[in-house]
Amino acid sequence: MKALVLAGGKGTRLRPLTHTSAKQLVPVANKPVLYYGLEAIRAAGITDVGIVVGDTGHEIRQAVGDGSRFGIDVTYIPQEAPLGLAHCVLIAEEFLAGEPFVMYLGDNFLVGGITDLVDAFRGAGHDAQILLTRVAEPQFYGVAELGPGGEILGLEEKPERPRSDLAIVGVYIFSPAIHEAVRAITPSARGELEITDAVKWLIDDGARVHSHLVSGYWKDTGRLQDMLECNRIVLEQIEPDVKGMVDGLSEITGRVVVERGAVVEGSILRGPIVIGADTKIISSYVGPFTSIGSGCRMEKTEIEYSIVLDDSSVHGVSRIARSLIGRNVEVSSAENMPNTHEFMVGDHSKIRVCS
User: Fold this and answer.
1) Lowest-confidence range among 52-66, 114-128, 253-267?
2) What is the pTM of this model?
3) What's the CA angle centered on 209, arms 203 and 210, to 5 degrees?
4) Of residues 191, 125, 123, the one with CA closest to residue 157
5) How confident is the model over 319-342, as a mean pLDDT?
6) In sequence order, which residues have a C-beta less than 8 Å from that of residue 100 and are 6 or more positions away?
7) For residue 341, what is the DSSP state?
8) Judging by beta carbons within 10 Å of its beta carbon (0-12, 13-18, 19+), is residue 62 exposed, middle or buried?
9) How many CA atoms lie within 13 A of 195 on its CB side?
10) Could you tell me if 255 and 235 are in contact, meaning their C-beta atoms sit under 8 angstroms apart?
11) Terminal C-alpha separation, the chain
12) What's the mean per-residue pLDDT of the chain?
């Protein structure tokens, strides 16, 4: 079995951050979301991986390389424009070479991996397997409608009026039958070849399409609140590990990771949190569910439930929460600061905080 990982797309829901960075490389607990998917694929015994890339292809190639760090062999497949998930299958047909494959959306996060799902598919003789989970806002996802026996009655892509709350998780498993389906469908009203249309074509053609309800944690990390929630889930599982320097005036509580080269002086760290290598935390409070990247500086600042990317600095800000701060960002205080500030800040930004 092979794997097809989709790492194109523009990440419009995470702008301005994704104007300058691939959405699949935004970190969760200081590790890019894409890496979690590649590790899950390798854990399932799949080593031949095609990665579909778009405008941010150069950044993805730099981050993943030939795949050897993950124990996989990577082939890059350029997509000239984001023309739909089924279009990705269409352009990858030569790479897939008539073998069954996992299609994994590179910005999706699935706790527990895919090993059991892959093993079940190998022995079941299905032509397609889709994963479903219940969500609060199904209009943002592909949605499945099931019959009383669990059979698939219908599939819709981001419907205005969803017929169920069952979202299609961004991990699919297909037999080679999917290739005929993607060639047979036409672009949707959005101008894309929808994978939901291809799966519906399989069903209408009498193929064996199986749905599996995911009981574990899954998120499409395309929005700020989803990134922060994934960060929280991962941080809840970390083990304390302090390799950096923490002075005697600092206080550490709970599961806290301080990477090598980091310095903590006169500060309070309340886990679960991760502090990246060579970061300085000076006279600050870092609260639960926060990950701070490498080479950052937090001074006279309070921050919690947030993600800060590499080489950014925050100085003199009384309260930051529920925020995603990009790379090389500078945030500093001004007079009459409010108690809480919320940010979603792109790379190379500078912010003065005022009332």
Assistant:
1) 114-128
2) 0.87
3) 145
4) 191
5) 80
6) 1, 2, 121, 122, 173, 174, 175, 176
7) B
8) exposed
9) 25
10) yes
11) 57
12) 88
